[in-house]
Automatic annotation (TrEMBL):
Residues 481-736 form the EAL domain. Residues 339-472 form the GGDEF domain. This is Bifunctional diguanylate cyclase/phosphodiesterase. One of its GO terms (molecular function) is cyclic-guanylate-specific phosphodiesterase activity. InterPro entries: Cyclic-di-GMP_PDE-like (IPR050706), EAL_dom (IPR001633), EAL_sf (IPR035919), GAF (IPR003018), GAF-like_dom_sf (IPR029016), GGDEF_dom (IPR000160), Nucleotide_cyclase (IPR029787), Rev_trsase/Diguanyl_cyclase (IPR043128). It comes from Jiangella rhizosphaerae. Pfam families: EAL, GAF, GGDEF.
Amino acid sequence: MDPETIQPLLEALARATDSISADVIAVDGGMPLVSWGSAASAGVKGKDITVMRDAIRAITAEVAGHADAVPVEHTTPAGYTILATKVAYRDFVGSICLVRLDGASYRAKDRELLSVSAQLCAAVMEAGEITDQHGRLDALVTYVAAELMGVTARDLAETLFRVISELGRYFGADTCFLRHNDPELQASVLVDEWPRRLDVPDPDPLGIVPWDTDDPIFSMVRDQREPFITRPSDGQLSYQERVRAGSGVPEVSLATVPLIHDDTTLGVLGLIHFGDRIWTRAEVRALRAIASLLVQLDARVAAEESLHHQAYHDELTGLWNRRAFVEDLNAVLEADPRAPLAVLFADMDRLKTVNDVLGHTVGDSFIQAVAQRLRDSVRPNDVVARLAGDEFVIVLHEIGSTSAAERAARRILDRVAEPLEVGGHAISRSASIGVVVNGDMPSTVDELLGNADVALLEAKERGGDSVVVFNDDLRSKLLVRADLELRLRSAISNNEMRLYFQPEFDLRDGRMTGVEALVRWQHPERGLLAADAFISVVEEINLSAELGRWVLEEACRQLASWKRTSPVPPPLVRVNISAGELISADFVGFVATLLSRYGLAPAELGIEITESTVMREIDDVQATLNGLRGLGVTLAIDDFGTGYSSLAQLKQLPVDILKIDRSFVSALAESSGDRAIVAAIVRLAEAFNLTTVAEGVEDPAAVTTLLDLGCYRAQGFFMSKPLPAQVVLEQARNPGVPLRMM
C-alpha cells in the first residue's frame, strides 16, 4: 500500500472526525501499514499508549472477523474512543482505525466517512499498490523512529517494551529482547523481553550473563560489531542449553544486532524464533537501522538525565538542591496535606573560620563530609537537601509528634558535632537546627520552610549548638517580623522614621561633647520602636543603604537647625554607618554634598563604624576612611574591644576616637578583668594619640573608675537616655557639675 496515496486520505479523515490518529493496520500485526497522527504527539504517554494499542489490536481482530465492513466503536479504560471498520483485499485482512481523546462517541457522519475510506483503501490495493517486503520494512523503521522521537527518561522503559513487542509481532518472533552491556558487572544484563516470561527461574540464567562465560554467543556480545544469526543446525550447544534452562524451549533460531556508540558496544537487540527460521538480508538491515535508533535514544536520554541531575542536585555534595526538595515536598503535601513529617533547617555554626583559616578547598571538603554525615544520620526514606552554603534542610517522614522530631534533631546535632578528618585537619563544628512539624492544619512548603527558618534564627540567637522547635511564641514573632517587613518598605517615604540623640559628656565637668544619632520608628500601631526591634529586618530586605543615608542627612539637617536656633548647639553629631554604606562608590561625595548643603564644618560630623566591621572589611573601607579623613570628618571605631583588631591594623586606620564597648563598662567597678581591658584600651589610645569614649555608663562607680583609668568622655543612661531633638538643647544649655560628684 503506497503511503503517499493513503496518508492524505487518512489525514482528511482524522481531521473531519476530530481524531488524533488514523491507521491502516493488519489483523495479525501491530505496526500500522500507513498512518497519520500519533497518540504520543497528542500527549498520551507511557502505559496509556500500550492500553490504546492493545485496544486497537482488539478492535481490529473483532472487525476483521465480521463478514461485512461494519464500523465498531469501543471506549478504552483510559476514556479514549476507538472507531474501526474492516479492510480486506486478497491476503490482507485488517482495519482502518480512528482514535479520539475526548471520550465522546463518533457521529453517524463519522461512521459513513470511515466506511468510504475503507472502500478507498481496498480500491488502492486492488489497483496493485501493495508494497513489497522492502517497503514494509522501511515503514517499520519509520514507525519505530516515530515511537522513539518523544521519549523521556520517565517513560523510557514502557516505550522500549512497546517497541520490542511490536518488533516481535511484526517479524513473527516468539521472543524479542534487549540486553545491556554493564562494564561494572562485566556482564550482559537483560533489559526487557517480549513476551515476559511467567515462570522465571531463580537465579535467572538469562538475567545477568558474565562475559567470561563458556557460552560463545554471550561472550561475544561484549564487543559484537556485526549482526549475528544462529540456527539449531549451527551447533551452538551451550547457547541452546542456556535458552532451554531459562525458557524450557528445546531449540531456537536467533538474530542479534549490536547497539554501537563511539566504537563501544552498548548491548544487543535480538529476536528468537522457536525452531528454525531464515532471516533475510532486508530484515537484518531493518534491525540494524532500528538498533541505530535505539543508540540515539540512549544518548539523548543519558544527556537528559545528566541535565536533570544537574538541575535537581547540588554540585558540591550531590544532595538534592532547593528545586528538587521543594518539588518533592510539594508532591507529598498534595497527596496528603496532613502527612506526618517534620522539616529541619540546619546551619553550621561559625563555618567562616574554617574557610578563613584553612582555605575554601578544605571548607568545601568539610561541607561534603557534613552532607554525608547528615545523609547517614537519617533513614533511607528521609530527605536531605543542601539549599546554599552551609544550609541544609531535612524532611523526616512518619514523624507524628514534636517531641519525636526534637529528639531526632538533637541526635543529628550530636552526630554532626563529632570531629571530622578533612585534608589532614581535625575539624569540629556545631550546628543549629530549627524544627517544624506538619500539624493538624495543612501547610505549604513555603510555610514549613519559613517556620523552620524562624526556629533556626532563634537557635542562632541562643548562641548556636541548639535545637529550637517552632511554636506559637515563634509564630507570633514571625507575624511581627512579617508586619515589620511589610511596613518598613514604606516607612521612610511615609515620614515614620525619627532620630533620637544620646548625649556624650566630658566626665570631668559634665559638658556635652557631642550627640550620637539613633534611629527610631514611629510604628502606626506599636508606637515608638528602638532600632533593635527592626534593624535586622532592614538588613535582610536590603534597606540598610536607604535608611542609612536618611539617618545621615537627617542628622546633618538637625545639627544645622540647632545651630540656627541656639547659641550653644551640640558640638558635633555622630552617625553609625554600616560597611555596605561605607564602601559604596559615592559615599565620600555624598558626605561632602551634605556638609555643603547644610553649611556644616567637617569636624561637626562624626562617622562611626563598628570594630568588627572594620576588621572584616579593612581593605575595602581603607580608601573610604582616607577620603573622609581628607574631608576633615571625625572618625570613630564603635564597640571597640570586641573585634579582635591588631596593633598593626589599628595603626593603618585614619581614626580619631575609640568607643569602648558597653560590655566592658557595665560592671567596671566590680570586675578586675574589665578594668584591666579598659585600662589597656586607654593606654593603646594614648599611644596612637586617640580619644576614648566609654559606652553604657549606668552608675556613678563606673564614672569614678573611668576617670581614674584616664577615660574622660562617656555616654550612658546614668547621664542621659536618648532624647528627641527638641530636648537635646536643654542639656546643651545647662552644663553639669563634674560627674564624679553626682
